[in-house]
């Protein structure tokens, strides 16, 4: 993942003494990827437990994303609209009022929710202000979303990794896929090729979203042209929002090993915050233009908070799709 600015999305070190820059490729790069992949696979069982706990805290308010369509299950009555076929009128209900009413049925086709999380090296970051890395929080959100969606009868899949499944244990199956494909996940781009994602699906992409904008714009616009609804979830460590550094500070890109030293880091703070705000505004404008949503989450906040926000966006997308 490329950094937002030369000072962003990097790890802080009090000194560069004795630290050799990591090579982006070659034997050392491969070894680090394998170590990171093993850490990802080993940590998934605990993250799955946490995801289940988060899902339980929000599932009571997680209403199904119903919309009008073909089916046999009654949903609601609505006023008849001039120009509609008269066969749609529910005469029994209309006889009780001065207006004509139409009986709407619930759309019964299983909805598909596609999930993806940026699990690259830059996501393995945690400051002292947070108790979890960005990567672990992204995984917890992905697995919790899978669990609640599966309980609502939806199909769930991993973009670029697995086909959607309709199963009560969808979260466990997705976790197993991530564990088996850990090395591949570590090496892929933040936004994988969405070859299997089709119209009327929803996509939730979770990451710090600090990659260069053109790549994100191209990915989102490609899906939007297919008729896919989506939500981007930006997960940041609190220090990435506030840039609280001062004095001599070294920043290192965890993916390329590139290093930069600020003699007085506090003098960079205003420019960094301005760049971050401009980047986020561009993401927001992109989502607004294509009918998607942007949700921002900081890792020092409870995962349940952002889960509720994501559900509100998904429910809104389902309503728009049914109109």
CATH class identity of the largest domain: Alpha Beta
- pLDDT under 50 segments (min length 5)? 1-28, 66-72
Oligomer: single chain
State the helical fraction. 40-55%
CATH fold topology of the largest domain: Rossmann fold
- Largest β-sheet summary: 5 strands, parallel
Radius of gyration: 23 Å
Overall tally of domains: 2
What string gives the helices and strands in order? EHEHEEHEHHEHEHEEHEH
How would the global form be characterised? Answer: globular
Q: Under the CATH scheme, which architecture of the largest domain would be assigned? A: 3-Layer(aba) Sandwich
Number of strands: 10
What is the count of helical runs?
A: 9
CATH superfamily of the largest domain: von Willebrand factor, type A domain
Calculate the mean pLDDT score and round it.
81
By secondary-structure content and strand pairing, the structural class works out as: alpha/beta
Strand proportion: 15-25%
């Amino acid at each position: 993942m490329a950094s937002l600015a030369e000072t962003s999305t990097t790890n802080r070190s009090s000194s560069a003494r004795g630290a050799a820059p990591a090579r982006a490729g070659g034997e050392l790069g491969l070894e680090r990827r394998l170590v990171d992949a093993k850490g990802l696979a080993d940590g998934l069982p605990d993250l799955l437990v946490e995801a289940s706990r988060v899902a339980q805290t929000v599932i009571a308010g997680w209403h199904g994303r119903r919309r009008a369509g073909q089916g046999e299950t009654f949903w609601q009555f609505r006023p008849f609209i001039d120009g509609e076929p008269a066969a749609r009128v529910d005469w029994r209900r209309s006889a009780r009022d001065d207006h004509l009413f139409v009986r709407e049925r619930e759309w019964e086709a299983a909805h598909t929710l596609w999930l993806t999380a940026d699990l690259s090296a830059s996501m393995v970051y945690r400051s002292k202000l947070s108790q979890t890395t960005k990567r672990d929080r992204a995984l917890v959100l992905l697995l919790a979303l899978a669990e609640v969606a599966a309980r609502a009868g939806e199909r769930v899949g991993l973009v670029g990794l697995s086909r959607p499944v309709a199963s009560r244990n969808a979260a466990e199956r997705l976790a197993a896929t991530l564990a088996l494909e850990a090395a591949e996940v570590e090496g892929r781009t933040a936004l994988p090729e969405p070859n299997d994602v089709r119209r009327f699906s929803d996509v939730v992409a979770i990451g710090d979203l600090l990659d260069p904008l053109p790549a994100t714009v191209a990915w989102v616009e490609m899906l939007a042209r297919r008729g896919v609804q989506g939500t981007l979830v930006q997960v940041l460590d609190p220090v990435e929002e506030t840039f609280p550094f001062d004095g001599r500070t070294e920043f290192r890109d965890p993916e390329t090993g590139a290093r930069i030293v600020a003699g007085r880091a506090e003098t960079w703070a205003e420019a960094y915050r301005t760049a971050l705000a401009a980047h986020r505004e561009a993401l927001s404008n992109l989502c607004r233009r294509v009918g998607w949503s942007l949700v921002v989450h900081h890792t020092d906040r409870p995962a349940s908070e952002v889960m509720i926000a994501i559900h509100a966006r998904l429910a809104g997308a389902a309503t728009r799709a049914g109109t």
